[in-house]
Amino acid sequence: MTEKFDVKLEGKTFFPDPSLREHMRMGDYELAYNEFLKDPEAYWEKVAEELTWINKWDKICEWDHPHARWFINSKLNITQNCLDRHVQSGKKNKVALIWVGEGGEEKILTYRQLHREVMRFAAGLKSLGVKKGDAVCIYMPLVPEQIIVALACARIGAIHSIVFAGFGTRALNSRIRDSAAKIVVTADATIRRGKRVELKAIVEEAVVNAPSVDKIVVLRRTKPPMELYSEIEVDYYDVLKDVSECEAEVMDAEDPLFILYTSGTTGPAKGIVHTCAGYMVGTYYTTQNVFDLRDNDVFWCTADPGWITGHSYIIYGPLLAGGTILITESTPDYPDPGVWWNIIDDFDVTIFYTAPTAIRMFMRMGEDWPRKYDLSSLRILGSVGETLNPETFEWYYRVIGKERCPILDTWWQTETGMHMITTLAGQPMKPGFVGKPLPGVVADVVDNNGDPVPPGKGGFLVIKEPWPSMMRTVRNNEERYRQYWSTIGKYYTAGDLAVKDDDGYIMILGRSDDVLIVAGHNIGSAEVESALVSNEAVAEAAVIGKPDPLKGEIIKAFIILRKGYSPSDKLRSELIYHVRMSLGPIAMPSEVEFVESLPKTRSGKIMRRVLRAKELGMDPGDVSTLEE
């Protein structure tokens, strides 16, 4: 029962300069939240009125549990809001995108230039036969073309499915097949730590047994250019059309915008479907109000568009708000641990949004590296992906923010599309607590029955009311979608354990399901286990997350071997490599233990919590359902 979780809530509170609130877009949290509660639909309508619509809505929201429709019967195209309206309003020569390559290369695109490139590639997609409603898989490094392709898809009503370029063949194939992608857009390679990492070779394997794929578009970045197979492969630049205009497709509010696959607790990854209008309003609203985005800001989110953070706060949110975004292909410690601080110094980055894993890595390397650079341009620091523990918070605040930049810890998910809980700039900050629900969000901590738990008592984090950017379904799995809204009462169950203090601040305690969070990336236990079992030596497998001071969690695998195979260091290495090749390096187990049996319920379900409790020396709890 959740009542067993007692959490010590005492800790430091950091009070920002009182004048900070006066200059923020949303300076008075209580006033804004009360305005929302008074009339939720009017609150969201006021936000939506700031954007451009082809046709306005008949009604703001229709809630038929567990399905919501937002801005009903409205017509729009999200790229008109990301690009056209800024070009037409005098921002055409404002910098939209700054790219920094690992070798120091730079590329800068104004809104006029980005608009033109998006239209050119959109027209090219049409020439390849891509129509409204078709799926396009994007498997690319973090280069400007990745963003151009995503926006081009949205321009013509194609549904983009961006797959993180760190995933391997098996993971990519499953996502191509599930989305029924007609086109795959990739690059010959990405550059990581000075080395070329092949991408096209992975795509070539992944499209085997993927009958939906008609063409592979390849961005050839290296010289001499690699050979393409003419019957299916097309050069990126050959797709570009010399056009001055590619009309934006008229999209209904509830038309799909993209599919993004996120790790599930059982079975394959879940294809989370987001739609045009609600997602647009939610990401615009949070970018404006959480980050307080201003006209002269340079916004750097260090995520990859292969994750929801990159979708919402690299591509759509900042461009909807007319901001300047910075992206880089570089890793944070190559060629030295000063590379990111040098970028902030060089480009006068004002808003820096990264993951606790990166901050902890910098902590280990000491304070001398950031002190070599001028970080005075920074005014807001953000955190995303996992819990920002107090020690890391304080280092970030003191060493990077110089005790003057507010830290915005943010809780949200692929499924939510936008920030849900945070501490707004200007509000008191409590290290370890993510903050309060944003105006527009009704969140609470409840017990198994859906009843609120008292402050200091752990429970389940739930969202009680619909919000515009909520996912609309899980592709090809309506039953899984309904589970989100039926596990605890009729609330959206986030899958996280949490606790609330007397002031309403929420602390995230960890996952309540079998999703692992490694370096801020959600990895499904089932996907890793499936990859292991696909090896001929493995009969059964179970994986757990173990706490790690740098990555948050590492993966440990427990393996039962098939008859005729014996444990060995060589086999252990082979299995780790097998996962790497199947799912990519982020899913590699750090530890492998060969066992004779696994704890299971009488129905055959592996009890991972028992394995984890034993590994960490904890009480495994109720084991009455285990087999004898």
Question: Could you write a compact summary of the structure shown?
Answer:
With 628 residues, this protein is an alpha/beta fold. It contains 19 helices and 32 strands. The chain is 30% helix and 25% strand.
Overview of this protein structure:
With 628 residues, the protein is an alpha/beta fold. Among the domains are: 78-97 and 107-256, Rossmann fold; 515-616, GMP Synthetase, Chain A, domain 3 (2-Layer Sandwich), CATH 3.30.300.30. It is 30% helix and 25% strand. It has 19 helices and 32 strands. The strands form nine sheets. Strands 5-4-17-16-18-19-20-21-22 form a nine-stranded mixed sheet, sandwiched between helices. It has a five-stranded parallel sheet with strand order 7-6-8-11-12, sandwiched between helices. The chain has a four-stranded antiparallel sheet with strand order 23-24-26-27, with no helix packed on it. β30 (538-548) and β31 form a beta hairpin. The chain is globular and about 70 Å long.
The average pLDDT score comes to 90
Report how far apart the termini are: 24 Å
CATH topology group of one domain: Rossmann fold
Sequence of strands across the biggest β-sheet = 5-4-17-16-18-19-20-21-22
Number of helices: 19
Q: How many strands?
A: 32
**What's the main sheet like?**
9 strands, mixed
Class by alpha and beta content: alpha/beta
**What is the rounded Rg?**
24 Å
Percentage of helical residues? 25-40%
- How would the global form be characterised? globular
CATH class of one domain: Alpha Beta
- Poorly predicted runs are 1-6, 622-628
CATH architecture descriptor name of one domain: 3-Layer(aba) Sandwich
Approximate strand percentage = 15-25%
